[in-house]
Amino acid sequence: MGKPTDKPFVSRASSVTEALAALGRLPSVLTTAIQQWGHVEIVVQKHEPRRSIDQNRLQRLWCKEAAEQGDCDSEWYRGYCKYHFGLKVLCRDSEAYRNACKQVLGSLSYEQCIALMMEPHDYPVTRAMTKKQKTEYLDLCWQHFTGQGFRLTDPNLKGFSPTDYREVA
DSSP H helical segments within 70-130, as ranges? Predict the structure, then answer.
């Protein structure tokens, strides 16, 4: 047994076979958990897939494209999107996250909030999202930027950049 930790033990399964294999490991996991914490809670819930690497790449690409067309750098656009769209999604879906945001961001100015979203601070927003939440977030970013006249790589075009195609009116 290693150092005591507060991190939960997690096992995921998408088939009965995988679930039974996880169940076989449960006695040793429970022994370790009870030795570390005393009391434990066993929860079985639907697994929500985390955001994908492709979603992260697309977010970064869009911020870069916005910087090439706008008057701010890509990191500022990233912070702007996290603040305006990411917090909206996560705070709607999680009371705990909403309360934490109020506590951390509540007394800060708008400029300070945007700065906190950016490097080097990089307030955690999108890394806490599920794949579904990140899809909604990206949709909000797309609507915002394209509504402002920015041309962004269309994810449905599978790799074509805005300079490689013409939109049909």
Answer: 74-81, 87-93, 95-105, 110-117
Tell me the pLDDT tens digit for each residue of 69-107. 999 999 999 999 999 999 999 999 999 999 999 999 999
Q: Are 153 and 75 in contact (CB under 8 A)?
A: no
Three-state DSSP class for 8?
coil
**Other beta carbons within 10 Å of 67:** 17
27 Cβ contact partners less than 8 Å away, ≥ 6 residues apart: none
Residues 6 or more apart whose CB falls under 8 angstroms from that of 101 comprise 87, 90, 91
Length of the chain as a residue count: 169
CA–CA separation, 40 and 42 (whole Å): 7
Beta bridge mates, 50: 130
What three-state secondary structure class fits 98?
helix
What is the rounded radius of gyration, in angstroms, for the C-alpha atoms of the chain?
21
